[in-house]
């Protein structure tokens, strides 16, 4: 009996269980999701050759994997079948996000020079007349450890391009993101990256053209390095918004964003935290923005600790998200209006050790204005801000 079982297991091992080293996929003409899902389960390397365009028409659950490599030289295109995705995209309670693809597990690599095509145009146009439409994120790393994503293009995500959700040791390198609408309806909410409940994340050497945050640090993004990015048309490198949800405690700590070129953007370096009644709490601690070159940026430097809250309400209900040990160092370039930097904190000492050094920001004309409220500003550029009113 025991011998029989062993032989049976050996037989299974040889024919089914043992992972094939490498598989190559070609387009089937129909939905390629089933073959892609089968391949990732049974092969350690899945290759999508240069001329192949995989048509992803049903959702991709690729969680709990170990030691997998997707060598994407061709294209993975997410079919813009809005009725299908409306009912079937994976849902995350955090900001009610949905996604085409969850990719998770341990020791995963996605590279190869190819493209993830979100086919976003139909989504942008449909969203313009239906603001309740939930548009899927292209790639969600979910519960993933030791991941490398590199040498990949991402085009026209319907919404965010990358969501790093409950990840550790995640490395993005040489990613080109382009979300550009060809109609009058913008590519709204097309963030480059959102980092959430994740630790040890690096995003570097990448070029992003999009219509919302270039990189956003959401609740519990810790030990994150963002380096050498060129962001165009975005809403900037943003911490937050944090402290929105009652009962939740949001941490963003040990974050560095360095060597950033920011052009034609709404914000450069930004931290935003909610105030008012019925919000959450948290801490933003040890965040450094260094070596930013900005061009035509509406708000080159921003702290807003009364986010979405008017001054009177903020005075009554100051933010419970404290902001400490923040550095804006060596930030130069041009704004689009006279105010080039705003450090606006809640009353009652909710910001501490806020530093500005080597700022060289110029408005389109006239004298640059630096504004601040309820904060003592440190660093060699502090005199630019004068004395901040306390309420
Ligand atoms: C994804 O598949 C795994 C099994 O492989 C399952 O446990 C999990 O619930 C699925 N996730 C979703 C969101 O459907
Ligand atoms: C990671 O996975 C790859 C296959 O993609 C494998 O070659 C490599 O040995 C794995 N590394 C570790 C540390 O297990
Ligand atoms: C808007 O999109 C939602 C979600 O997909 C859908 O349930 C609703 O029917 C759409 N509304 C209109 C007017 O098309
Ligand atoms: C970056 O990725 C692109 C593909 O998107 C590739 O063509 C290029 O060679 C990569 N650059 C480097 C330095 O590896
Ligand atoms: C960003 O643009 C600058 C100036 O054009 C260039 O030197 C740098 O290599 C670019 N960085 C990336 C990651 O493409
Ligand atoms: C963030 O981490 C802290 C400490 O582990 C935890 O108490 C809190 O619930 C987490 N917040 C979120 C939004 O996950
Ligand atoms: C601040 O964060 C950086 C990483 O961004 C880290 O290297 C440094 O040790 C942290 N400093 C403190 C005092 O925690
Ligand atoms: C931040 O970095 C410091 C210094 O390395 C470390 O002691 C601390 O645990 C880090 N904080 C988090 C939340 O990882």
Briefly summarize what is shown.
The protein is mostly beta strands.
Write the topology of this structure:
Blueprint: H1 2-17, E1 20-24, H2 33-42, E2 43-48, E3 53-56, E4 60-72, E5 75-78, H3 82-88, E6 90-92, E7 97-111, E8 115-117, H4 121-129, E9 137-155, E10 162-165, E11 168-178, E12 193-196, E13 198-209, E14 215-217, E15 221-232, E16 237-242, E17 249-274, E18 281-307, H5 311-316, E19 321-335, E20 339-344, E21 351-362, E22 369-373, E23 377-378
Parallel strand pairs: 1-2, 2-4, 3-5, 4-7, 5-8, 7-9, 8-9, 9-10, 9-11, 10-12, 11-13, 12-14, 13-15, 14-16, 15-17, 16-17, 17-18, 18-19, 18-20, 19-21, 20-22, 21-23
Antiparallel strand pairs: 6-7
Bound molecules: 2-acetamido-2-deoxy-beta-D-glucopyranose (8 copies).
One 2-acetamido-2-deoxy-beta-D-glucopyranose binds at residues 86, 130, 132-133.
Which structural category do the helix and sheet elements fall into?
Answer: mainly beta
The 3D shape can be described as elongated
Q: How far apart are the first and last residues' alpha carbons, in Å?
A: 82 Å
Strand content: over 45%
Q: What CATH architecture do you see?
A: 3 Solenoid
CATH class: Mainly Beta
Number of structurally distinct domains? 1
Report the radius of gyration as a whole number of Å.
23 Å
CATH topology: Pectate Lyase C-like
* Strands ordered across the widest β-sheet: 9-10-12-14-16-17-15-13-11
Number of helices: 5
Report the strand count: 23
What's the pLDDT, averaged over the residues?
A: 95
Helix content: 10-25%
- The CATH homologous superfamily: Single-stranded right-handed beta-helix, Pectin lyase-like
Following the backbone from N to C, one meets helices and strands in this order, namely: HEHEEEEHEEEHEEEEEEEEEEHEEEEE
Bound molecules: 2-acetamido-2-deoxy-beta-D-glucopyranose
Low-confidence stretches: 1-17
Largest sheet: 9 strands, parallel, barrel
């Amino acid at each position: 009996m025991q011998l029989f079982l062993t032989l049976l297991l050996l037989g299974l091992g040889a024919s089914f269980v043992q992972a094939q080293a490498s598989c190559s996929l070609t387009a089937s003409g129909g939905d390629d999701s089933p073959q892609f899902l089968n391949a990732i389960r049974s092969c350690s390397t899945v290759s999508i050759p240069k001329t192949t365009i995989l048509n992803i028409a049903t959702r991709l659950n690729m969680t709990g994997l170990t030691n997998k490599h997707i060598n994407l030289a061709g294209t993975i295109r997410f079919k813009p079948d809005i009725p299908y995705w409306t009912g079937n995209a994976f849902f995350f309670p955090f900001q009610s996000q949905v996604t085409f693809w969850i990719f998770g597990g341990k020791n995963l690599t996605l590279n190869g020079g190819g493209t993830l095509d979100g086919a976003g145009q139909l989504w942008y146009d449909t969203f313009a007349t239906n603001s309740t439409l939930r548009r899927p994120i292209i790639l969600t790393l979910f519960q993933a450890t030791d991941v490398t994503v590199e040498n990949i293009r991402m085009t026209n995500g319907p919404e965010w391009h990358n969501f790093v959700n409950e990840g550790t040791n995640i490395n993005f390198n040489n990613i080109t993101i382009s979300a550009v609408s060809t109609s009058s309806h913008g590519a709204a909410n097309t963030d480059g990256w959102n980092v959430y409940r994740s630790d040890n994340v690096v995003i570097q050497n990448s070029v992003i053209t999009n219509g919302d945050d270039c990189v956003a640090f959401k609740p519990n993004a810790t030990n994150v390095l963002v380096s050498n990015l060129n962001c165009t048309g975005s809403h900037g490198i943003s911490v937050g918004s944090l402290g929105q949800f009652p009962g939740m405690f949001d941490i963003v700590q040990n974050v560095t964003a360095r060597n950033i070129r920011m052009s034609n953007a709404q914000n450069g370096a930004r931290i935003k935290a909610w105030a008012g009644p019925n919000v959450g709490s948290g801490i933003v601690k040890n965040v450094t923005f260094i070596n930013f070159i900005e061009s035509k940026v509406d708000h080159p430097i921003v702290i807003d600790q009364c986010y979405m809250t008017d001054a009177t309400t903020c005075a009554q209900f100051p933010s419970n998200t404290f902001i400490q040990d923040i550095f804006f160092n060596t930030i130069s370039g041009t704004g689009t209006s006279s105010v080039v930097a705003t450090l606006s904190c809640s009353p009652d000492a909710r910001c501490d050790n806020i530093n500005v050094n080597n700022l060289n920001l110029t408005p389109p004309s006239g004298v640059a204005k630096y504004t601040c409220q309820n904060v003592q500003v440190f660093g060699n550029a502090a005199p630019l801000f004068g004395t901040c009113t306390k309420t």
